[in-house]
Each structure stands twice: as structure tokens, then as C-alpha cells.
Amino acid sequence: MTTTVPKIYAFHEFSEVAEAVADYVVYAQNNALSKELVDRKMSVSSLNVNSEVEFKDVQRSVSIKSVSGVSRESSKKPKREVRFKIALSGGSLIHVLHKGLLSRTDVMWGKWDIYFADERLVPFDSEHSNFGLAKREILDQIDTEAYGKPNVFHINESLIKDPQECADDYEKILIKGFAGRDSVKLPMFDLFLLGCAPDGHIASLFPNFQENLREKLAWVVPVTGAPSGPTERISLTIPVICHSHRLAFVVEGSTKAPVLKTIMERPEKGLPSSIVNEGAAGRVSWFVDDEALTDVSVIKKDYKFRSNK
Ligand SMILES: O=C(O)[C@H](O)[C@@H](O)[C@H](O)[C@H](O)COP(=O)(O)O
């Protein structure tokens, strides 16, 4: 059995999953951006940074910067701008985020750095491209006039014929975004969002692909011969995924019930999803619908909404 029981939030409907996931994303966003408030020594005496930061506080800090053009600490050396660093998987997660996030008015898209947990090595306009799907379903639909434009870090499309080169190139992109490999051993995402396939793969880390699953040094690995979907891919590695500040699995549908049963009741089977569930114990939340939990014995928690829409 798992050593630390993950938080498992169960919902009747897809729309409820989407609403709760969106709330959790905004909660993670506000916590990440609250570091900026603290850094600037704003009037944070009433602010409990361990709990939810009110959107208006974060928004105020941003507007102060944009109105005055300089921060209140402009006399001191400029600090690296605090941004919300999030990793997205592909598949149904993107539809969940489309449904839950786009209608909200408290998503500070302009402060987001979006990376991909994995990518299938296909052209961006292919229906199988994770970036392509995210672009169509989310990125192209953001009201950037009102909420700003996120920085999006995707693979180099010109390298899709060479998985190793593409992985190395994406690793360099991560190294640049996370202040360089010499200064950080591993990147730390504020939030890492994962789906889970019926075979237990997460990102593009598949069961029995031992070399990829045991990778300790690389941040990004090439994947060849994937057993489902496009065969050539790249994926962020287990150490990177597990190092995230928060992780959330988003899983719906009865086809996922058997794998959820294995993850929750038979972690010793070592599915990639179990490795992360265990490896990041204490920081993992699961957002699932009732169908995915059919016949799975777990303790479900009620999700407490943290932000106002
Ligand atoms: O490229 C991939 O394979 C995805 O990033 C993958 O890790 C996804 O999250 C799962 O396959 C679940 O996908 P579904 O939620 O669509 O079942």
C-alpha cells in the first residue's frame, strides 16, 4: 500500500471534474505568483502565503508594475520575474482544461510559462500533437487582450525526425527556463498536470520501458517504439515530474477503473503512474470521476473550492 495516501477527489460528472481542476490550477497559480508579492515586500502582513492568495492581491501587484513601469524596489537590482510554471500532458486533460479554465476571469495567462510533459513527434497540425491540441483547444482561445499571453515552450518541430536530438533540444529549453543546469539540479514546476492511460503510462513513460523509467540524469528522454499512439516521442523524466511543487492526476471514465485499481491497491507493480504517485507522495492530488473509481477501494475526499470564479 502507499506510504502516504494521496488526496483523491471524486466527482459524478466530467463538468465537475473540470471545475475542480480549474480551481486547483488557479490556486496553484496564485500561490506561485504570491512569491512576487512577498519579494516586493508589499503589504503582506495580512497575507498567509501558505494558503490561498486572493486574486485581487496578485492582480494588484501586477498592475502596480505595469502602471508605474517599475516595481517598488526599483532601486535594488532587478529580480527575475516570478512566473507560474506549469507542465501539461496531452489527451483528455486538455479537454478538461478547455472546459474549466477558459471561462474563468482569474487566470493570469500572461504570467504563465507552459511546458509539455511529453510530445508525440508529429507535425503540430497533426491531431496527435499535444502542443497542437493545446493550441487549438486552449491557447488560441485565450482572450489575450484581457488576460495576457502565456509563454509556451514546445518542442522544435523541425527536429521531429530525430527523437534524441529533439529531446536534447527540449532539455536545453527547460534548462534556459529554469535558470540553468548548474544552478538547479532539477527544474521545479509549480504544477505538473498528468493524465493516466489505461496501460498506466504517464507523459510518454510507458510500463516496461525500464531505461526511460530508471533515467536519473536527463530531464528529457527520447521514446521510440511506443506501444500506443504515435511511436516516436519525447518525455520529461520521473525525477523531473516528481520534483514538482504540486502534481495532479486527472482521470475520467470507466476504461480507467482497472488501472486506477492497480495504482491504488498494487503499487508494487511499478506502473509509471504508481512510481510518480509514490515518488511525489504528499504532493499528489487525483481528480477523478466516479466511473474511474468503480471497484477501487480508496478514501475519497471532498474537494474544497479555494478560489472564486
Ligand atoms: O501523449 C500522451 O500519451 C499523453 O500525454 C499521455 O500521457 C496522456 O496523459 C495519457 O495517455 C492519458 O490520456 P487520456 O486522458 O486521453 O486517456
Automatic annotation (TrEMBL):
Q: Which residues form the Glucosamine/galactosamine-6-phosphate isomerase domain?
A: 73-286
Q: GO BP, one example?
A: carbohydrate metabolic process
* Family matches, as Gene3D superfamilies: 3.40.50.1360
Main location per the UniProt record = cytoplasm
Q: Name one GO molecular function term.
A: 6-phosphogluconolactonase activity
* Described purpose of this protein according to its UniProt entry: May be involved in regulation of tRNA subcellular distribution.
Q: Which family does it belong to?
A: Belongs to the glucosamine/galactosamine-6-phosphate isomerase family. 6-phosphogluconolactonase subfamily.
Designated name of the protein:
6-phosphogluconolactonase-like protein
